[in-house]
Amino acid sequence: QVQLVESGGGLVQAGGSLRLSCAASGSIFSINDMAWYRQAPGKQRDLVASITRGGITNYADSVKGRFTISRDNAKNTVYLQMNSLKAEDTAVYYCHGKIVTTTSILGYGMDYWGKGTLVTVSS
């Protein structure tokens, strides 16, 4: 029905940059909030950054000033530009969307998740 597919993960040296993308497809009526979460081995999944449909952003303290979230509403895509990467940024990064589908247009939308993309930062 709705799919979120992440791309752009990989191996990078500390201090380097990566850009993650997440494209939503399927029976989409509209997308409200979108966000990136991450989960390191043995740890819980935490919010990295979020963005409203209107472009209001929110960041975890650990990534402020280094990461930038953005979105292209026409393409149903959200991005995460990650600069000055550190070893502690190593994790699986998951895309999340609050999506209203064409079969259920009432309310703020349901939660959809991507399968994740691995980011490994070597020190």
Compile the SSE list and pairings.
Elements: E1 2-7, E2 10-13, E3 18-26, E4 28-39, E5 45-51, E6 57-59, E7 67-72, E8 77-82, E9 91-101, E10 110-113, E11 117-122
Give a short summary of the structure.
This protein has 123 residues and is mainly beta.
Order of helices and strands: EEEEEEEEEEE
The overall strand count is: 11
Q: Note the overall shape.
A: elongated
Radius of gyration: 14 Å
Distance between the termini: 40 Å
Strand residue percentage = over 45%
What does the main sheet amount to? 7 strands, mixed
Proportion of residues in helical segments: under 10%
Give the class from helix and strand content and strand pairing: mainly beta
Provide keyphrases for this structure.
123 residues; mainly beta; seven-stranded mixed sheet; four-stranded antiparallel sheet; elongated
Structure characterization notes:
This protein is mostly beta strands and about 120 residues long. Helix content is about 0%, strand content about 60%. It has strands at about 1-5, 10-15, 20-25, 30-40, 45-50, 55-60, 65-70, 75-80, 90-100, 110-115, 115-120. The strands form two sheets. Strands 2, 4, 5, 6, 9, 10 and 11 form a seven-stranded mixed β-sheet that branches. The protein has a four-stranded antiparallel β-sheet with strand order 1-3-8-7, with no helix packed on it. About 30% of the residues are buried.
